Amino acid sequence: MQARRTKKRALLVVNPRARRGTGTIAAAVKLLEESGLDVDEVKVGEGETIADVIRRAADGVDLVIVGGGDGTLNAAAPALVETGLPLGVLPLGTANDFARTLSIPPDLAKAAEIIATGRLRDFDLGEVNGHLFFNVASIGFSAELAAELTEKAKKRWGVVGYAIVAARILLRSRLFTAHVDHDGTTERIRTMQISVGNGRHYGGGMTVEETATAEDGKLDLYSLEVDHWWRLLALLPSLRKGTQGKWDDVRAFQTTEVTIRTSRPRPVNTDGELSAYTPAHFRILTKAIRVFAPPPEALAKPAP
């Protein structure tokens, strides 16, 4: 007869290509083990994905801890939803916007303490054409940025890398036409970027909407309908605060489902990765994932 496990077993998967992905988690793992967890670190093998690792180990673990950034979490999302395993986050990426949305601190020991407390919360996920996302999906400027910002640049320059590449793309950006179907209406717009957010933060601390959370059951859409690149520069402070919807040349609304159509297929950036093309159908998946996170009052505080 097999011995009954008394300690909870945690599957730990770390993205070695994350900006802080090597040599930084020993103290966090020690804290987790001292809290009573049996931590089993598994590396992603050649030809497999992080989702494959989670699916393979699902029957023998109680939770999954992911060390990486938003792209790593995005890659893990399908398996987390399928298995129902709770998620612990060790922020090792460049931007760590999902951790920021949940007020999970960038300090790995403090992030590990949150997992060790065992406090779980239910959070929503966004979905576009079958692809899940934690933070935001964008068409236009951000998708071009994701295409050009290499892993090497992100690892070397961090958030500064976003700014360098963004400035170069901004100078050549042009408006495009899109049809937006939502809530029984169709709007034809000319825009530089359309963003559909599930959480609050994206792109290294930009904000989808100042009151957005990843547990409000809503998608927050905004469209930058500016006619000159310098106008976007004027918008930057509002984009960081999430108050851009108050500007006349920014369209913003909440919904639970929206379809965006363009005259030619345009890539969709989900959590920093290009994963789909227009026509893009977005929807919210409420309470789709359980995450170890600070209590609700902490989520309302400014992100670290």
Automatic annotation (TrEMBL):
Keywords, sorted A to Z: ATP-binding, Kinase, Nucleotide-binding, Transferase
Highest rank taxon of the organism: Bacteria
Any one GO biological process: phospholipid biosynthetic process
Stretches assigned to the DAGKc domain: 5-132
Transmembrane annotation, as ranges: none
Pfam short name (any one): DAGK_cat
Classification via InterPro entries: ATP-NAD_kinase_N, Diacylglycerol/lipid_kinase, Diacylglycerol_kinase_cat_dom, Lipid_Phosphate_FormReg, NAD/diacylglycerol_kinase_sf, YegS/DAGK_C
A GO molecular function held by the record: kinase activity
PANTHER family per UniProt: SPHINGOSINE KINASE, SPHINGOSINE KINASE RELATED PROTEIN
NCBIfam families per UniProt: PRK13057.1, YegS/Rv2252/BmrU family lipid kinase
Protein name (database record): Lipid kinase
